[in-house]
Amino acid sequence: MTRWVVGAAVCAWFGLALGCEGADPCQDYVDYLCDCHAGEPGYDCETLQQTYSAPDAALQDQCALDLEAQQAQDAEDGLACADGTSGS
């Protein structure tokens, strides 16, 4: 019983630390770019999907930062695409 409680506590902590169990910041980044910037020069969804298909932890951290920066830039530019469902 004690092992289960400790195991559950550790899993809960990691889930909170990572934000969401199973979350993939790189997939979120690719989805956002492909949904919001499809057809724009410099945004090739196929290349993005291949580039970020198997990210390590460091790349996932970078994807989260890049997504945040892109969303901030889009908001500054007046692009209404914060949730990745509508674009230009």
Give the termini distance in whole angstroms. Answer: 54 Å
Strand residue content: under 5%
Question: Considering DSSP H and I runs of 4 or more, what fraction of the residues is helical?
Answer: 55-70%
Mean pLDDT: 77
Number of strands: 0
Helix count from the secondary structure assignment: 4
Keywords:
88 residues; 65% helix; globular
Task: Indicate the topology.
Layout: H1 2-18, H2 25-36, H3 45-51, H4 57-77
Describe the protein's architecture and organization.
- The structure is a single chain.
- The chain is mainly alpha-helical.
- Helix content is 65%, strand content 0%.
- It is built from four helices and no strands.
- It has helices at residues 2-18, 25-36, 45-51, 57-77.
- Helix 2 (25-36) packs parallel to helix 4 (57-77).
- The N and C termini lie far apart (54 Å).
In brief:
This protein is mainly α.
